[in-house]
């Protein structure tokens, strides 16, 4: 909700670039909130809200990639990383966005990848937790208990 409101206010003040900047500001505020000693989340949902507000077609493509990767890998962090990796490219190619919005998209990608550094280490080590999709455990997880 905070991202949608921020993007709307940014858009009303200075247009599309204002929405991009406001969404990026919401991302930074979510990741490093002053009131919580700069300890916040990883920013994926805030980024998704910003993408939805800036370009719904890009959002649908990124969500499709997220869902597909999640279904295959059963790992939320891998799906999040893949979706954020393609975000700037899709925004530029599909939405034909350049300038401030593309810079914000690239910075968003870099920051979210940085925030996922521990997840990336666990992925490479093979210890990143899997999720169950639809409440069904895969055979390996079912054997564990």
Polypeptide structure, described:
By secondary structure, the protein is mainly alpha-helical. The protein has eight helices and no strands. Helix 1 packs antiparallel against helix 2. 32% of the residues are buried. The model has no long low-confidence stretch (mean pLDDT 87).
Task: List the defining traits of the structure above.
8 helices; globular; 0% strand; 74% helix; 145 residues; mainly alpha
Write the layout of secondary structure elements.
Elements: H1 2-14, H2 16-31, H3 44-54, H4 56-73, H5 76-93, H6 100-115, H7 117-125, H8 139-144
What structural category do the secondary elements indicate?
Answer: mainly alpha
Radius of gyration: 16 Å
Tell me the β content: under 5%
- CA-CA gap between termini: 38 Å
How would you characterize the largest beta sheet?
Answer: none
Query: Which residue ranges are poorly predicted, with pLDDT under 50 across at least 5 consecutive positions?
Result: none
Average pLDDT score: 87
Helix content: over 70%
